[in-house]
Amino acid sequence: MSASSQPVIGITTYRQQAKTGVWDVDAAFLHSGYIESVARAGGIAVLLPPQPASMDIADRVLDGIDGLVFAGGRDINPERYDQEPGEHTDQPDLRRDDWEFTLVNAVLRRELPVLFICRGAQVLNVYRGGTLFQHLPDVIGKIDYQRGEALLTEMEMTVSPGSTLESIVGS
Length: 171
Description:
CATH architecture: 3-Layer(aba) Sandwich
CATH topology: Rossmann fold
Largest sheet: 4 strands, parallel
Mean pLDDT: 88
Distance between the termini: 28 Å
Helix content: 25-40%
CATH superfamily: Class I glutamine amidotransferase (GATase) domain
Number of domains: 1
Shape: globular
Low-confidence stretches: none
Strand content: 15-25%
Number of helices: 6
Strand order of the largest sheet: 4-1-5-6
Number of strands: 6
């Protein structure tokens, strides 16, 4: 596949303090699994760190890409769905919240392929007027999720037979 025919896929990113080598700076970054997945699917990944929450900026960004992935990350500010932060809720990243809510508004007005992963699905839900449970163990009991101290972890999932997801990833 030539580079000219590869779709350019934007991926939203974190923006927070990062220390590496001699740097200890505010940085935009993302787990490389997102980038590698886009490349394996034949796309070119472009990282989209939080920007000023402007529809003009969001539209300009979307003009330059062929698809968009809203990546996982920290909890959305519960005030966006009329709740007070719970004791287990992450410190919200207000810049990212503002940017992604502007971006979801812009992308839903277009016929642009979009994938909402984890936090991204929560952004879509809250944008559409939904709410969230801030701490799932309070609702369903103890769950074995986010083991360890890592920021990014894995969890098992079940793909429903006959679902759209099964047609994409298999059983």
